[in-house]
Amino acid sequence: MIINWHAHINPPEENETPSWRGKSPLNINKLLEINQQAGVDKSVVSNTIHYIKSRSEADGLKAIQRWDEYAAEVQQKYPDKTFCFASTVPGGGPDFVKELERAIRDYKLHGVLINSSHKARYPDEDDARGFWELVTALDIPVFVHAPASSFGEEAMNMYRLISSVGRAADECLSLARMIVRGLFEQFPQAKVVGAHLGGGICEVIGRMDYAWELQEEAFFLGPYEPMLITKKPSEYLKMLRMDSVSYHMPALMCAIESVGVGHMMFGADAPPLWPLLPRAIKLVQDLPLGLEDKEAILHRNAEELLGLE
Q1: For 40, which of 9, 35, 226, 262 could close a Cys bridge (C-beta 3.0–4.6 Å)?
Q2: What residue ranges define each of the domains in the chain, with the CATH number in brackets?
Q3: Tens digits of residue pLDDT in 253-304
Q4: Is 11 exposed, middle or buried (0-12, 13-18, 19+ CB in 10 A)?
């Protein structure tokens, strides 16, 4: 059994924009095709809502409502092949929270994708508290995925660096902010899943620890206040789940050693990057772990997080 935690599609009309040149892979037919070819049994299907960045708040909400409705259609049509997630903006306000609740309660979607930032706003900010209260009450997974672009993008408009470096950096920053701003302290039951191994947060968590441990001794690094956490950041990191999207064994092993096998889900980012699906599977199969641990990553951890028997 293989469950791909990280697969994206769009509503059909969003694939008709000129930028796709008629070749968008973000559609359900492509997802089903590549899964069959690679031997993937089911996918957690989400929408990164990259296209709402340039839209007004009202139009962004309409686009999210449209996605939620389409996700419900897909899940109803392919119940044995898909688990679909809603999408939202955590700090978008009451209307966004209300729409998310509708998507989960009425449409029976299995979780929610949020961007690690949206128009320079981050999910740890005070205006997102209503979102966190809802997702913990609903007991659903929150998949944290990078936006189309974020801070520093003006220095990354070459060699696809926004995708390969910028998005990961934003995910790392977002998760780091959640930790130090006390989100896991205040919402310890939150089921947060970081895309792409958390964007590299496992590589910097030691630096985050000493930034917390060395208070007066590190005054020259800037303030560490208000103090909103009672444990070192690496302890909160262990509460985080991640998907295995990395295509780099040392990075994947670092993440597994940081959060544990039980908090790692198989992911491929396919679609859209459908040619990488077989490589993503092989990466997990080649891990220097026992069969039971590999099975946990390939499907059992996802099943547990989704509340499946």
Answers
A1: 35
A2: 3-305 (3.20.20.140)
A3: 999 999 999 999 999 999 999 999 999 999 999 999 999 999 999 999 999 9
A4: buried
